[in-house]
Amino acid sequence: MGLFFSLRNSFDHGVHPRHHKEQTAELPIQRVPFVARYVMPLGQHIGAPAKPVVKVGERVQRGQLIAEAGAFVSTTLHSPVTGTVRDIGPHRYIDGNFRPAIEIEADPYATQQLPPRPAIDWQGLSIDEFIAQVQAAGIVGMGGAAFPSHVKYAIPEGQQIDDLLVNGAECEPYLTTDHRLMVERPEAVIRGTEIVRQKLGAKRATIGVEKNKPDAIALLKQHVGELPIEVLGLEVKYPQGAEKMLIKAAYNREVPAGALPRDIGVAVNNVGTVVAIADYFDTGMPLIERVVTVAGPGVAEPANLIVPLGTPIREVLRFCGGLKESTREVIMGGPMMGTPIADLDAPILKGSSGILAFTASETGRPQEYPCIRCGRCLEACPYFLNPSRLAKLGKARLFEQMRDDYHLMDCVECGACTFACPSGIPIVQHIRTAKDDLRQQKVRSEKQ
Amino acid sequence: MPNFTEVAIKLYSRFFGSPELAGQLPDGVETVLDGNSAVAITEAAIADAAALSGGFPGSSANSAWQAERERQQGNMFGGQLGQLDAEGGRGALAAAIGLAMSGQRATAFLDGQQMAASQELLVNAAGRHLPLVVHLTNRALAAQGAALGSAHQALHLSSDSGCFVLHAMNVQQAVDFTLIARRVAEQSLIPGIVVMDGEQTALAAQEVKLPSPKLAKGYLGNSSDPIEVTNSAQKLLFGEQRRRVPKWHDLDQPVLSGALQGGESFALAQAAQAPFFAAQLPQLLEAALDEFARLTGRRYDTITRHQVEKSKLLLVAQGSAIETAIAVSETLRKQHKVKVGVVGLHALRPFPGEQLAELLRGKQGVTVLERSDSPLAADGPLLRELRGAASRLNDGERPRLQSAIYGLGGLPLRAVDLIALGITLGREMEKSTTPRRYLGLDFHRSDSIHPKRQVMLDTLRRHYTEIAGLGLRGKGAANAPAEGELSVAIHHLAGEPGEGLAVEAATFLHQLLGGCVRSRPALGWERWGAARIDRFSHSENALLDQGDEVMANIAILSGDPHHPNIDPVATLAQGGSLLLLGDELPARLLESIKQKQVTLYSLSIETEQLQEAQLGALVGLLLEQGRIELKPRRILGAREESFSHLAEAERQALLAAFEAGMTSVRRVEGSSLTSTSGSAADWSDEAPLAVRHLGGDRDGYDSLPRFWDQVGVLYKNGESDALTADPCMASGAMPPLSATFQDHTPSRSALPVFDADACSGCGKCWAACPDSAIGAVALSPKRLVDSGIRIASANALSQVGSKLAQRIAAMARKGETAGLATDELLQQAYDWVNEKAPLAEDRRQVVEADLARVKEALAPLPLSITPPLFELAEKAQKDSGELLSLAINPDSCKACGICSTLCADQALTMAVQDDELVAAARTQWQLWQQTPDTDSATIERVARLPEVGPMAAIMLSRHCAFALSGGDGAEAGSGEKVAVRQLLAATEYQQQPLLHRFTTEIGDTLQGVTLRIRDTLAGALPAEDLGRLSDALKAVSTRETGLGAFLREESIEGSGVDTHELKQLVELARKLDALQWQLAEGEHGLGRARYGVTIAPGTVAAWAGAFPHNPFQAPVVVDMTGNAPQIAAGLLAGQLQEAIESVRLLRQARALLDPKAHKGSKFERLGWSDLSDEERQLCPPMILIGNDESLGGEGLAQLTWLLNSELPVKIVILSELDLGLGDRHTATKLSPRRDSRTELGLLALAQRNAFVAQSSIAAPEHLRDSVRGALRFGGPALIAIHAPSPERHGFAANETLQQAENAILGRLQPLFHYSPEGEGVFGSRLSLEGNPALKAQWYEQEGAAITPAHWALGQRRFAPRLRPLASDAPAPTELTAWLALDEAARAGKSPYLAVIDSDGNSRRLGVDPALAAACARAGHAWRTLQELAGIVTPFTARVEAQAKADLVAAHQAELEALRAEYEAKLRALEEGMAARTHEQITARLVELAGYRG
Fold first, then answer.
1. Residue A97: inside a domain
2. Count of helices and strands (H, E) across chain B
3. What digits encode the pLDDT tens for the residues A363-397?
4. Domain end marker among A234, A266, A283
5. Which residues of B touch A (CB under 8 A)?
6. N or C: at which end does chain B have fewer Cβ atoms within 10 angstroms?
7. Which residues contact B1136 (CB under 8 A, 6 or more apart)?
8. What is the DSSP letter of A235?
């Protein structure tokens, strides 16, 4: 089994949703025009929100620091545009709620050119300085969760990273941002990988790419040269891009439940993240924009876009010819794990890998039938959990039991179970509700 | 445009101008010459006559021909050299045809554009069997724009004319082909075209061996010699023998040639050409080539082959690209292991198809290097020919064929690009690839540091996926110099020292060491401030042209090292040497110097002959490096030899400079140099003000913000090579005011400094500044304070604003402001106000806080209390005085010094600029721009003051002062710029009020229409019918409702409203509204332009239209085809259509509003002739700007036609006043001669129907009046203005206005205007007002008459014509006295000019006969004007006496008549009275007698 496994470079379980990437896979990354208004929410990820360092009415340069990290598990924000700070206060977030944010009005006539900065000599930096630089650059995991990258690089005493695994799997359907980055900027991917590898002291780096992107694999291999970087083709399967699945697929090593990859000497970074790191150390550009796939049947002109952070989603969609009449739902992120967007005026965030618009035929919720115990969800779950059980308990609001007895917190919400369920049970919804509830309970208890 | 003529002539005189050589023939001389000159000299040796025309780049050929003709008068065969001056290329070719028909060995030198325009003349020459040889210098045709560089369109066009075509790859070949073509043409009776590439051959100095008389005589023979006929056809025509150049037009053999043929005879004649004439050409050509090889040892073939047999891949090239292709093929073989053979094509006609097919047989891939793009054709022209040739091969033997397009319009052909092509070809050998590629340019770049540019790039990439592969650009350093090759790059600024150094150095090295020379001059339109790189390579061995942008061993930095676009290190190969002037080096270069291990040399020297010293330093450097192994004494001797044609003093000065340079150059370490940072190096992403000002939402071709984001930023940062092909580039259009992007600071070393207290407000400086670099505004104290409040947003201060203003005015009246800066002034005024009326404490604090902000904001603003703006105004009315604020724009100033020269108050002085000064000027300028515009009432008032005058007053208005912006590449102190600026300002001032009135009228009418609409709708509401209204209200359930509930279709109809009329009204209102917006605002906020501009080819076009700097606000069309008047007429038609449509709309609306009052008002199908005079005034005129060469020469017929049209086209002639001598400021007196065109004003006057004025920038009031008159006159107008040019005419840049003034005083440019609508007769419509001493022949200054020669004295271009009078000159006569003599009496006398030189000695300068004649002509023209205006006539006295007598007689007669009449009346009255008395008495008596009626 072991030999066979390592040959096919994959993990057990998982599902095979249609990948729908043909819509945008061939479209070159395209920069969107600057718009009038940008909103930078202070909290864009788990961890402490950033603290503004600018005042209302202040003129800011593109790339200028506008909010500093609020804690270690927190990162900085930079202005995506040259303009004037118009407001610091509650603004609509993608979930429709108000959250604190900095609103910047762009100067329509500014060149938006970044002030030239010399390249940073990363080789001369200590690991602590490196971590400080990454935090100062506001770089987060670009895969979706937007977890501050520098936190990942802070390896506790006594641990050693042997392998850097760069995630180019991009297993979510529709999304092609990582694919395009690998095709269009292979040198940046390699360079960023090498920077992180050296700084973490890893012996080797592996870039895992699903085999449905042969062009990316070929190009990356061309650019590796003499560096200790391996480009690894992976089986096409969902959720190949989940950290632990990827480690399993690449190295055939398991990360124990509750443990982190670094506990087994592995660090995992997204392709977008290493590119952001390469850009920052080359040109001094902090994380102020990202590549976003705009796709789905509801979009008139699908595209892969470079979008300044904070751009209202509405503007991005307008650039893509707007939404079709038949659009029912717009999702940020991939269709499996993404979040529905409640307000199109909400901004593009550091973790926004995609804006997908779906029409009735994709979003029409199937009629929910009782569980028939077919076990397909168990087969699908890459974490070997028992989704059907979790769903049942979730329905009954037995959240503690889910946590304590059924490893609720190990679930990465990949949605494979829901996808597999023939009865149309929204399993992952139940799980999310449970997780949210438990988190809030924890916060409440901590406050008391 | 660069003046290559000068360089060529200098070279020429070096070798042939020396007195010893005069009268001798250049006997196989080996020298260094540019292709144009070399070919012209060769032609002058063998031909009988040439037909010459101007134009770039052919002008240097013309000059060389003239020089040669002047030097030796005849050709090698002892014949007299003839010359015909022609208008344009067509004219030259036609003249050459005439010459050839009459048996002369004739030639003409044409450039690409001229050749393209002469196609059917070529066909004609071929059809007439003329043994003509025409020289074509390739130049790109004007397409979306114009370029100075080569392209092969005209070559390919001409190839089907029936002439044979030989294309030279270097200067030597051009010379040799000249002989070969002549021989072949005369044997075959088929005309030949000898072709050279422009900047690579025609303008590039290379070593060349000129033909010896022996060769010419042996190979060619005289044109009149009898020769054997070459085939039976000729035998039938001529018998066994014929004249070498047959006389088809011969008084002794009278035939009619050029018969008008019927279809059949024409076809037969045409078909007969091929077998009887053309068929023998290939053999004749082969034989001629063989014979040439036999005589000279130089073997040419119609095809050059390089490594063809050994390669599977071939490059096919023609012209100068052949050498580069061969050089690259070697590099590819040695360094990249790719085998690419080269096929060089020398004869395009006859096309060697068969030979080519053999070469192509079995090859894998053949790439044709094309210097021509034909986007709609399947293949490029050369590839098409090649496909034809390849079709002879069998299927399996045919190679894959494709095009690589290179060098369009002067795009560099870099070896790296060719190498990249070779590598790609090698890699793709098996695959079929793109049918055509563009070498050396990018269609797309995947990333740009300018994100807004990236947006466009990405959009193109997405929609045109194929374009990324279209361009092929080699990466990395261009190729290194070849083994043993010395490659030098000279960096300098256009118009500054260093311009001729490359050629000078190449020539000298050749003289010293022999060997080969290849050079590449930099081409560019702009004459000022543009960074240029001239290159040359020298090798003692054979040298192939390595292409453009070869890496240099030595770079010479001649310009300001801080200029942001000068980077000499970038052009250096690893380990090269850099020669600096002085010991300063920009810090930015240090790093790259270290990286490239550059050796530094420095030359610190004070000399007038800087270029000579630099050449000396270069030689010194080469000596030090051991590249020259000669004794210094030998070098100095050689240098002295090359000055043999110069006068002793000049020779010594140059030699001293050379020696000083050679000995004082020293090697320095980077660390020992002063490292400085340039003043403009600071990074800024601030957009130019015009970008914000013109804003706009649309991002189209006309959007300035778009242009800034996509193009401007690249030029600003010196990254113009990052431009890629995009649709906006394809349009060739530049948005308005893009010239403001340019910052001249780095190209300038001084800046005017303003002393506000010294200024008297005369306005001369800001009216005369050529570069719109001086801003002036009149501000009342109140507006000053208000704008301070606005700028600092300090609203709290406004509560004491009026009091502050009053106090400032009071202080100014008392003269208490002197010496105060603006912030101090404000503080003192506030202190006084606060003392008189103290504010409450809390308010005081707020006010004072705001005062501090206003003070800070306004502190840099200079304020002057001046008599015209303040004191005179105060005298008229208290508190109406205004302060003057004047600021210098450091972006556009070129430091010409005109302002400080004109300033009698010493308020403006030139200061050496440093960072601080520039920064202060910039702050001041930015602040000044935020001040409000001058009040129009002030302008009106000041315009009437003699102290100021109307032009300066007009320029107080920002609209007028910046009608032409600065930032262009015109020379410093350009008279043309002053003229165009003043002209546009006056036009703007004249037209704007009209536009305002029109806009107001439209506004009023619009209001009327909307009122009518409202009335109509109100009428439709059932307000009177309460029942209906109530019913309608019942149907409404909501609290609010639209009127629609009441106003339904039936209700309108019901109430008798005419819906048709309503629709019409609404439609009209919408149109009027749109029109009003368009007129007043428009997309750019500039309103509709008040005029259109067409610019004819010439020097104005070169600075006003140079991409990417557009200094205009109005629409401008630059013409490069020479048909500007007709283009202007076409443009005007469209422009009028737009205006007439506006008038029509207004008329229609008025008629609708008030049908009675406007009964019969026509508004359908309105034409120009239907408009009233008033309406015509509203139509924006077309201003056509040209010089006397472009509009007076070829364009004259069109000009005359325009002047007789009814169209409102205002023609502006900017005259060089070359007196018909064609003189330019050159090193020698040899230069092209032109016809006298200085009297275009008189010519226009003769048309009688147009408004004509001759005016001057030195008479601004006259100019303003002329412009006003021209615009008020509804029809065509012509204004001739003298535009002095410091560079071309040779005087200091600050003397421009003085030169213009001198031209008036010297009667060269008499002022006049003529209005056809004036009162009375022709003479009374012509006014000569404004000229000094109106009735005199010459104006006298200090007792001496001022003649044109006095004016000429101030200009170096005329220096050769004013030499110290020879002691043996016969009958010296003072010029004025000489001029007073009649023609016969002048003969044998030497006119001279008495002058006082700088040492106070009086001297006599002999006036050259041509100049003296020109003076006489000018005097005569003035006399004619005086006569026409009736001021002076030969009969004046007689007429006056007669008139007086007549008047007295008439007066007398009138008196007599009056008296007689009076007496008669008196008599009648007396008689009447008597009768009445008699009657009354009778009646009374009767009454008394008791009789009642």
1. no
2. 54, 45
3. 666 678 889 989 899 888 888 889 999 999 998 99
4. A283
5. 446, 449-452, 454-455, 458-459, 461-462, 465, 683, 685-687, 691-692, 695, 705, 708-709, 713
6. C
7. B1168, B1179, B1207, B1208
8. -
Number of domains in chain A: 2
Helix (H), strand (E) counts: chain A: 15, 17
Q: For the domain made up of B17-250+266-290, give the CATH fold.
A: Rossmann fold (3.40.50)
- Distance of alpha carbon B673 from alpha carbon B579, whole angstroms: 13
- Among residues A262, A283, A304, the one where a domain terminates is A283
Contact status, residue B1222 vs residue B1233, Cβ threshold 8 Å: yes
One domain, residues A270 and A410: no
Cα gap A214→A211, rounded to integer Å: 6
Q: Which chain A residue shows the shortest CA-CA distance from B699?
A: A33
Quick check: is A269 in a domain? yes
Residue of B nearest to A302 (CA): B462
Q: What is the pTM of this model?
A: 0.89
> Which range, of B240-244, B1203-1207, B1359-1363, averages the lowest pLDDT?
B1359-1363
Question: Could you tell me which residues of chain A have a Cβ less than 8 Å from any Cβ in chain B?
Answer: 27-34, 61-62, 82, 108-116, 184, 303, 306
Question: In chain A, which residue's Cα lies nearest the Cα of B695?
Answer: A109
Q: What is the ipTM of this complex?
A: 0.89
- Nearest in space to B229 (alpha carbons), one of B221, B237, B241, B219: B241
Helix axes B4-16, B35-46, angle to 10 degrees: 50
Pick from A27, A113, A184: which is nearest to B446 by CB? A184
| CB contact (8 A) between residue B452 and residue A184 | no
Helix or strand holding residue A92 (H, E): strand A83-92
pLDDT of residue A254: 86
The answer on A416 and A269 residing in a single domain is no
Q: State whether CATH 3.40.50.300 applies to domain B485-676.
A: no
Per residue in B10-40, pLDDT (tens digit) is: 665 665 554 444 444 455 788 899 999 999 9
Range of the domain at A394: 376-447
B541 CA to centre of own chain? 42
Contacts of A63 in chain B (CB under 8 A): none
Alpha-carbon radius of gyration of chain A: 21
On whether residue A360 sits in a domain, the answer given is no
The larger pLDDT score, comparing residue B693 to residue B224, is at B224
The whole-chain average pLDDT of chain A stands at 90
Contact B1452, B1458 (CB under 8 A): no
Amino acid (one-letter) located at B731: S
Question: Is B309-472 assigned to CATH 3.40.50.360?
Answer: no
Which position has the token pair 């909307």? B1010
Band of residue B1222 on the pLDDT scale cut at 50, 70, 90:
low
What residues contact B481, with CB distance under 8 A and at least 6 apart? B487, B537, B546, B550, B551, B552, B553, B573
Residue B1002: pLDDT band with limits 50, 70, 90: very high
What CATH number did the domain enclosing A6 receive?
Answer: 3.40.50.11540
Does B690 or B275 have the greater pLDDT score?
Answer: B275
Q: Is the peptide bond before B1391 cis (omega within 30 degrees of 0)?
A: no
CB within 8 Å: B685 and A29: no
Of A47-61, B42-56, B1386-1400, B1429-1443, minimum mean pLDDT range: B1429-1443
Token match 């080469």: residue? B622
User: Exposed (0-12), middle (13-18) or buried (19+): which is A68, by Cβ within 10 Å?
Assistant: middle
Residue ranges in B189-280 assigned as alpha helix (H): 213-219, 232-238, 263-276
Fold agreement (B309-472, B485-676): no
Helices B632-641, B610-624: inter-axial angle, 10-degree rounding: 150
Distance from CA of B444 to the nearest CA of A (A): 13
